[in-house]
Amino acid sequence: MQEKGNISIHTENIFPIIKKFLYSDHEIFLRELVSNAVDASQKLKQLSGMGEYKGELGELRVEVSFDEKAKTITISDKGIGLTADEIKKYINQIAFSGATEFVEKYKDKGDEQQIIGHFGLGFYSAFMVADKVEINSLSYQEGAESANWICDGSTEFEIKPGDRTERGTDIILHINEESAEFLNQARLQGILTKYCKFLPVEIKFGEKDESVKDGEDKDGKPQYKTVKKDNIINNPSPLWTKSPSELKDEDYLAFYRELYPFSEEPLFWIHLNVDYPFNLTGVLYFPKVKNELELQKNKIQLYSRQVFITDEVKDVVPEFLMLLHGVIDSPDIPLNVSRSFLQADGAVKKINTYITKKVADKLSELFKKDRKVFEDKWDNIGLFVKYGMLSDEKFYDKAKDFALLQNTDGECFTFDEYKEKVSVLQKDKDDNLVYLYATDPAKQHAFIESVKNKTYDVLKFDGPLDSHFIGTLEHKLEKTQLKRVDAETVDKLIDKDEKVESVLSDKEKETAKTLFEKAIDDKNSTVNVESLAADDMPVIVTMPEFMRRMKDMQKQGGGGMMMMGDMPDQYTVAVNANHPLIAKILKTENNEQLARQAYDLALLSQGLLEGAALTSFIKRSVAISAE
Question: What global pTM score does this model have?
Answer without folding.
Answer: 0.75
